[in-house]
Input
Amino acid sequence: MSVNQPPPATCAGVLADGANCTQLADTGRYCPGHVRFEARDLDMLKLASEHFRLDLQLFWQRGSLFLLMNTAVATVYAAASQAALRPLLAVFGLITTVFWFLVMRASAYWIDHWRHRPWLVPSEISKWLPAVLAAGWCALFIGSLT
Output
């Protein structure tokens, strides 16, 4: 062995009994007997990544649907010519917003669980938007009763 060459690395694999593998690393960090785990791990990472992407996509689709529904109710509320219809619309808007809040909080829980950074992600801001709108619907309901 030459002085300038680093010594051969041992395998980074772990044996069934929990001990480290003592064979020399052949491919990357693993011996030929443990290389097969890298492909499996990569497949599991791809599946987890796809699941995370799907959770994000569903989160934003649900949020957009509830926002569209609340916008429609608010538009009908603003255009309602009958005063008796406004409290009903405000209650309907409040109920859908509370339901939106619960759905977004549950969805955001799983996204935050994946990311482990709850206040640095757009999902955290988006899941509290229904709470703000619920307060607005309460104010419109109270205002429509007077």
The chain has a mean pLDDT of 81. Residues 9 and 25 are 6 Å apart (CA to CA). The helical segments are 36-79, 85-115, 122-145. The longest helix spans residues 36-79.
